[in-house]
Amino acid sequence: MQLQRDLLSLALYLIGFIFILVRFKKKKLKHVLIWTGIFLILYFCFIEIREKTFYLLIPLFFFFLFYYFYFKDKCRLRNGWLFNLFLLSFMGYLVILTFSSRSLISAGILGVLILLFLFSFLFGIYAAIIFLIGNSFIVLRHESRRLPNLLTLILALAIIALVIIQTYEAQLLPEWMLPLLSIPTLISGYFFIVFWNFLSISMIYQFNQPKEDQDFIIILGAGLIDGRKVTPLLAQRINRGIQFYQQQLKETLSAPKLLMSGGQGPDEKVPEAVAMQEYAIEQGIPIEDILLEAQSTNTLENMKFSKEIMDRERPSGYHAIFTSNNYHIFPAGMYASQAGLKIDGIGSKTARYYWPNAFLREFIAVALMHKRIHLFVCGGIVVLGSLLTAASFISLH
């Protein structure tokens, strides 16, 4: 009976899946995810009704909690914690369903998740080392040898050092010092959890699809070539803004203003906003649809000074979004919240080789925004490790 139930359910899911692929030309992934969610909820509800249980309410509670807080304020790290609580509760639910109802579908989903976990546990560290070292050489071949471009190499070397400490600490050091050497491992584990949370919410934030009713599109500046021309990376940001501009103009016949935001660095001949304006005009954007913010020196100032311009242009209220590279939009959204702007970001594509290094840089920037919390936790780990080391030394001597 259970086998027939699950095979029929899978057949219905595949029919809906094929219909989406044939019916929709755009946003197929979005519709597939929605259909998958609806199918699973209906399937699980059917089993719950038959079994007269209510276990599904636990993951649903965490999902709707995440949903509420995410759409209340998308650029908050707490949303990542709530989403991961949903994932953990959902995995627990799959375990219960697999054994209590003999569900083939839940067993299949759980099996895939377990295989991914085992693969990550057995090979994840070594695969990460190989990937990070390989990526660092690719970055150095394409980019300058500045510290921000060495982050993947530095992380790989740190992981190697940690593995060596874990492997040889028992042979090289007395037993009473082992708690002291657990400090780097615990701190690394803590930052891995923090990084995972940042990665989770950053990936979710990539799915932003703002409505085509915007008054302004803020385009965040970056460095210039020879102090005058936009870089390929900055051009991608501008192109993403122009793409939305043209899409909204086509759909609503109302064009938003492109707000170029970027000041003049010490090695730049013109403000970034001016170079961005010239590039946009070359792409066919009328100059009357472009506004300039040419005073900012960082992302927070981009948002603050852009807000001042938009408040002045439309004191009665407005809708706005911002564009940046995909690895940067979540941190930029956090800065927008600090500046008093409740706006969404849309990301432009970034070269794949550059993504890991850039994402690590953004993670460090966000971690520094909450440095007090991290210093408190790391300090607690150091104190605890030191106390355990002292206790171990006293007990052995």
From TrEMBL:
Domain spans labelled DUF218: 215-364
Pfam family of the protein (one): DUF218
CDD domains: YdcF-like
Transmembrane intervals: 6-24, 31-47, 53-70, 82-99, 105-138, 150-168, 180-199, 373-394
Keywords: Membrane, Transmembrane, Transmembrane helix
Superkingdom in the source lineage: Bacteria
UniProt protein name: YdcF family protein
